[in-house]
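Lab notes, practical 5.
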Amino acid sequence: MADDFCFLAKDTFSIKTPKKSPLVLRMIVLLFAMVCGVYICSICLKQISTQSRARFLNVQVIERPCSRSNIEPWEIPYVHFPKPKTYSRAECACNPVRFFAILSMQRSGSGWFETLLNSHINISSNGEIFSVKVRRSNISTIVETLDKVYSLDWVSSASKNECTAAVGFKWMLNQGLMQHHQEIVEYFITKGVSAIFLLRRNLLRRMISLLANSYDRDAKLLNGTHKSHVHSPHEAEILARYKPSINATLLIPNIKQVEDTTARALEYFKSTRHTILFYEDIIKNRTKLYDLQDFLRVPRRKLKSRQVKIHKGSLWQQVANWDDILKALNGTPYESFLHADYQV
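Output from the prediction step:
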């Protein structure tokens, strides 16, 4: 009986797998192939769509060049559209910018002159940047510094940034300018930099200012602080109390040395676009500042400075050994330096 039950169980639960039709298998394979094909096609379409969109976006960010149609042909080398690395010029990106450098000597009025320029809303003059020796240690560091200024990436209190129309700085002749004059002239011509020479006619006045400033560097007459420029009549009066003594024997050789340096600088930079201004002429005739603004191609504005002149009035009141100076310069080509050449 048990044996019969076993045989019955085997017969009852034994299931034979039916044979599949070849047609069904073909249909399954075909369906699988179609699904794979649709999937692959969808992936390809997505990639094509992404690439097309990327190309479209790339076209959108391409910047059109700024128009130069209103610029006279001779001006084109001196007109620039800088692209700073540290910020965007935004809506001012196509405002043209002129590059300049004020070439001068210490105590020639360059500090006062620069404050006048910086009172213009569109002019940025960034100070005496090459007074830092490392910046003028060789021509590579000089060019690197110049590039940073003219790309509008130089940061100073004078920076107007986005909407600057003229950018530059002041450069003393004894700050690497004369030593590397060939490379600097080439840079000025290649980059379209205009030179502004600011000079003194009365070199005796300049010498008095130099000696007095040198004395105050150590004496620090203004409450223990040295100031090359002041903004109040009271401070100017304190500094003017010191009356230097001038070595009468070396006076004429020193004047000739300054004249020679100035003449060589003018000769070196004669191939650049440049203008020559004299401190005394600006004092007597402020319309010279309008000529300068025309030179820089910026709108004319009335320029102002808060600086107060330190040494003014008659020269005999400003030096300790006036009689020695009279003897040294009387009857020489420099006798005119003894007389008042302007009134303040």
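Observations recorded by the TA: The longest strand covers residues 98-104. The radius of gyration is 39 Å.
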